[in-house]
Write a structure and sequence with these properties.
about 160 residues, five-stranded mixed sheet, alpha+beta, 5 strands
């Protein structure tokens, strides 16, 4: 296995990482760049715990080869808020929509993407946007309710 140097935009700033040619974007984020928000759950793209925004699309970082990050724009859960907590994060916190927290980063990334595309999504749109994320603790009720309250309020 050979190493590659990849350069891309990470959470609004230029980033360079030395990655293994067979490594995933998740490996690069966690092991090379020290960003631990995206979680390694299933490593098959089924659980959504490793979700990131890649050139504006929600993807499972475990399915993206690290070398494919070259020249792209990556936003992780660490980058969704900027200088202040994102309204999605506030809504989930205030709505009791977080328990163990393992799935939370992926859900936050998916919800932020949804609210950027649709400022006031319906309950069905929220459920559809979160369909790629598995949560074993909350049963989704609190998550959906918190995001519906955000949708009904001021939005993002």
């Amino acid at each position: 296995m050979s190493a590659l140097i990849v350069e891309f935009t990470l959470n609004g700033s230029p980033a360079t990482a030395r990655v293994m040619s067979s490594g995933s974007a998740l490996d690069a984020l966690r092991d090379e760049l020290g960003l631990f928000g995206a979680k390694s759950g299933c490593e098959q793209g089924e659980c959504g715990s490793c979700s990131i925004l890649l050139d504006g699309a929600v993807v499972c970082s475990c399915l993206v080869m690290a070398g494919d990050l070259q020249g792209l724009v990556v936003v992780t859960v660490e980058g969704v808020a900027g200088d202040e907590i994102h309204p999605v994060q506030t809504a989930m916190h205030e709505g009791g929509a977080v328990q163990c927290g393992f799935c939370t980063p992926g859900i936050v990334v998916a919800a932020v993407d949804l609210f950027e595309r649709i400022p006031h999504p319906t309950g069905e749109e929220i459920k559809e946007a979160l369909a790629g994320n598995i949560c074993r603790c909350t049963g989704y009720g609190a998550i959906v309710r918190a995001l519906q309250e955000l949708s009904a309020g001021s939005g993002t």
